[in-house]
Design brief:
Strand content: under 5%
Shape: elongated
Order of helices and strands: HHHHHHHHHHHH
Radius of gyration: 18 Å
Number of domains: 2
């Protein structure tokens, strides 16, 4: 609910001058991110504007926490505070859902040792609504991740993906889908 998110602005702005960063960060996770994560894999791809509207509220909260002006960029603040953007949370939740589901991998289709055997096979579909399923989009996100993240065991995968996403505060799903094109080693 939006009133709980807006309530963080009031509490956060009162806490920020008087408290240390750890207390404000804990308050953020308690009052803001818990409500943000609720059903995120289901509603995150309902429309592109939903994530963007929530991201605007999240950036306001980060500005309060990092003591930034209302026109200052939040990208570095997300990195410094080690907080995932709502888009990063959506990528995390759907990718973990795909990882824990029993989805078909390319290596299971045939028994040849190919370089893409560890990626998920994205099934053919006719309707655009199929693309919005958490299992489909999670598998698509998985296929986009770097090898050093996907090769982690299931226990280390969540932490490894979180760290990778914290270093790259994505503001949109499209930005994540183009990250390999924009990455210059």
């Amino acid at each position: 609910p939006c009133w709980l998110i807006i309530d963080f602005y009031r509490v956060g702005s009162q806490l920020t001058p008087a408290s240390d960063d750890r207390t404000v960060r804990t308050t953020y996770f308690a009052l803001f991110e818990t409500h943000l994560r609720s059903g995120l894999a289901a509603w995150g791809n309902s429309s592109g504007s939903n994530l963007q509207r929530v991201l605007i509220h999240q950036k306001k909260a980060i500005r309060v926490m990092a003591r930034l002006g209302f026109r200052d960029s939040c990208r570095n603040a997300f990195k410094e505070l080690r907080i995932l953007t709502v888009v990063g949370l959506y990528i995390l939740e759907t990718t973990i859902y795909a990882r824990t589901s029993n989805l078909e991998r390319r290596g299971n289709i045939h028994h040849y040792g190919t370089r893409n055997a560890g990626t998920y096979d994205l099934p053919a579909h006719r309707l655009n609504i199929f693309k919005k399923k958490p299992s489909y989009i999670g598998a698509k996100f998985w296929n986009m991740l770097p090898a050093h993240v996907t090769q982690l065991d299931i226990k280390s995968f969540r932490r490894g993906l979180m760290n990778w996403l914290m270093d790259r505060p994505f503001y949109s799903v499209q930005e994540f889908l183009r990250w390999k094109e924009d990455y210059n080693p």
